[in-house]
Amino acid sequence: MDLRGLVLLVAILIVEVVTAANGNLVFSVERRKTTLTAIKAHDARRRGRFLSAVDLNLGGNGIPTENGLYYTKLGLGSPPKDYYVQVDTGSDILWVNCVECLRCPKKSDISGIDLTLYDPKGSSTSKLVSCEEDFCFSTYDGPLPGCGSGKPCPYNIGYGDGSATSGYYVKDYLTFNRVNGNLHTVPQNSSIIFGCGNVQSGMLGTSSDEALDGILGFGQANSSVLSQLAASGKVKRVFSHCLDNIRGGGIFAIGEVVEPKVSTTPLVPKMSHYNVVLKNIEVDSDILQLPSDIFDSGNGKGTVIDSGTTLAYLPGIVYDELISKVLARQPGMKLYLVDQQFSCFQYVGNVDHGFPVVKLHFEDSLTLTVHPHDYLFKYKDGANWWCIGWQKNVVQSKNGKDMTLLGDLVLSNKLVIYDLESMAIGWTDYNCSSSIKVKDEAGVVHTVGAHNLSSASAILIGRILTFFLLLTAMLNS
């Protein structure tokens, strides 16, 4: 190859790498590396949010030793600026920190993240959402006391761990990439309403640990970005994710999945989160003997599917019975307490040969199969120490101690579909490094592939999954 041809080839390769690193394939969702203690603290905060959500009328990852929260980069405003936000199926609004924010974090401990404050005055398309607008009425189920004519519609979210965020709603452009062909996207924007945070407290405040610009809620409420896009006729309220904790990367798409076929179970109606009916748990072909009402929904009980939680949390009586069965094949095995909270042990060999498969059986005969390599994780690379990912749900308040919360521990390496049109959720074991076929509003089927951009830039760490918004061909603001 002559010099000219070599230069051209190198130039093409550079363009491809830079394009990938800059997120041209929609939202790149990264998974932060963290410690075991930080994982439990992160999950504890999430459980606190679940427990306080009902009172506040609110809606509503992976290998534990390597990954914490999921976050993505999106554009807001005109001209668009980049913001890093946590992807959260357990909350219902998109909010970002704003320029007038008090106690907002100034920096993030997450490598490669530069925090940005949203400035309504710096965007030519930003508008305040007033108290008399329909969005404000519907969010609060009627007029909000003290919210008079012309005043900005406020938001205030308090979490069970004492953290809180408050501010006001604004309307502006959200910029993302729309899938318009097989493995191809084009930039697109749409006007949406989101929270402009001006007061943060607790872990959302000045702490740089896990600090991001905000949270992108994918809950069921009308205030979520998904619901807003659906209300404007641009999408259906259907999304899916496939998280690859083996190779890294994965898929997160909005749209009807037509391939592979996935069986579903009904979502429990009138619940703030993605609640399902868990019937029983099977270990080594034996059904656990548990109280008949242990998995009933309501009154702080029930089973919640949440991709933002790292581990899996069970009521105490369920946890004790499950662990007893899981360890039955290894009599005399000694357990050690690591970081004062994880049960770990030494084991040489293939864990899939030494420990049983756990099957969770749901309504309508849907089964979630959890293999030993899913619920057991290496404490240190290259060592023979393994830890148990199942956790006992210990909370401070009585409300919620009997809740079953299923996170990434059981959801990884599975295609999970949330169909709010049919009020159902489903999953199937899947190679998350491959692709799926999704149908848009025009009935056109597109191939959506997995992406792992972790090698594309030195500042991108952990595992990255591409977050696809599959929208119709024409989007009107």
UniProtKB/TrEMBL annotation:
It holds the Pfam family TAXi_C. One of its GO terms (biological process) is proteolysis. One of its GO terms (molecular function) is aspartic-type endopeptidase activity. The active site is at residues 88, 306. The keyword Transmembrane applies. PROSITE patterns: PEPTIDASE_A1. Keywords: Aspartyl protease, Glycoprotein, Hydrolase, Membrane, Protease, Signal, Transmembrane, Transmembrane helix. The keyword Transport does not apply. The chain crosses the membrane at residues 456-475. Residues 70-428 form the Peptidase A1 domain. Residues 1-20 form the signal peptide. Belongs to the peptidase A1 family. PANTHER family: ASPARTYL PROTEASES, EUKARYOTIC ASPARTYL PROTEASE FAMILY PROTEIN. This is Peptidase A1 domain-containing protein. It comes from Clitoria ternatea. The lineage of its organism: Eukaryota, Viridiplantae, Streptophyta, Embryophyta, Tracheophyta.
